[in-house]
Amino acid sequence: MVRLLSCLLLGYLTWNLRISDAQGEYCHGWLDANGNYHEGFQCPEDFDTTDATVCCGSCSLRYCCAAADARLDQGSCTNDREVDNTEFAARKFSVFKLSCGSDPSCEISF
């Protein structure tokens, strides 16, 4: 029983060390040219190699890479956005008022 507990503890500690070693930069969320929000992510992502710990790309397309000289200076980007809940993010819409009654020459005002 003691041996089993020791193995479980060793496995847990090894797993935690692996995760903490793999942590890299955080790529901030951003709006692309079409106004679509892209959520930020921690490097490396699930499909990246463990050495892809640097946020690379451009202000409008970000990804994780291993080349430190290709690092994106996110501080120079003007389209950074962090939205807590994108489902309820503000969206542009129009409000109009329709007050025609029985008047056939009715106008719609915006």
TrEMBL record:
Q: Where is the Shisa N-terminal domain?
A: 24-79
Q: Which domain of life is it from?
A: Eukaryota
**Which terms in the GO cellular component ontology are assigned?**
membrane
Q: Where in the cell is it found?
A: Membrane
User: What is the predominant subcellular site recorded for this chain?
Assistant: membrane
Q: InterPro entries, from UniProt? A: Shisa, Shisa_N
Which controlled-vocabulary keywords does the entry list?
Membrane, Signal, Transmembrane, Transmembrane helix
- Look up keyword Protein biosynthesis and say if it applies: no
How far does the signal peptide extend, from start to end residue? 1-22
Pfam families registered for this protein in UniProt? Shisa_N
- Protein name, entry field: Shisa family member 3
Q: Which species is this UniProt entry from?
A: Mastacembelus armatus
